[in-house]
Design a protein that fits this description.
By secondary structure, the chain is an alpha/beta fold. 39% of the residues lie in helices and 21% in strands. The protein has one domain: Alpha/beta knot (3-Layer(aba) Sandwich), CATH 3.40.1280.
Length: 240
Amino acid sequence: MIVLLTLILADSELELVPKELRDNPIIVEYSRRKKKDPSKILLDSNLHYQAMKELKDSKRRGRPDIIHITLLNALDSPLNRSGLLNVYVHTRNNEIISINQSTRLPRNYNRFVGLIEQLFEKEKVPSENPLLVKQNKTIEELLAELNPDYVIVFSEDGEKISSQKLMQEAAKCDKVVAIIGGFPHGDFLSGIKKIADKVVCIDPSPLNAWTVVNRIIFSYENAIDLAERRFEIARASSKT
């Protein structure tokens, strides 16, 4: 019986305003209104689009909203509530954010941005008994630490397979890592596909990161019969 699924949002477009944009008038004005130094502000294409036009990879960068929505879905899942899900965020700048299973992220987007800005500054949030921890680390280094039995990368050019069939196969392993892109379009920047055990595509149409995550988690829960296990625990608790 599989006991753990690890989810990694890889090459996520989560970063502070880069040096080449910190003197841009749009960024300067925005930072003035936020009463923060430009170097401590999260890059957000919805707010900084005009300033980002000359930035390399500008059309995929500055998307903390993708991470926010995806994490809300993952952390609220029965799988996570049962202690059977680990979640990490890997950024384009090779930072790894570890997220405690008990974390309850702000549902308000602006509060989430403030939390991540605080994390980038202090590297641990909160400072005592931290729920979020940021470290400089490549995704390859993270995988070496996790030492998984099975690594699956989700990509539009991967082997076509349903999430149900995929997770039934994965449930035969003890430690499975599922890697999903934390970017709006394009391909992985890191070479993660080369070290994956399987590169898969679970739908003929492009899917948002949070949709892929929802399908993976739900199919995984079904593969290990989690709903019935949770009902059994609830019934046993009600008798005591």
